[in-house]
Amino acid sequence: MEASVLQELKERLLYLKHEIMSRIKENTDKVNKIMIRGDEGDFSDAVYTKDILYDLLEKDRQHLREIEESLYSIEKGDYGRCRMCGKDIEIERMKAKPTAKYCIKCRAVVEGKR
Ligand SMILES: [Zn+2]
Question: What is the pTM of this model?
Answer without folding.
Answer: 0.84
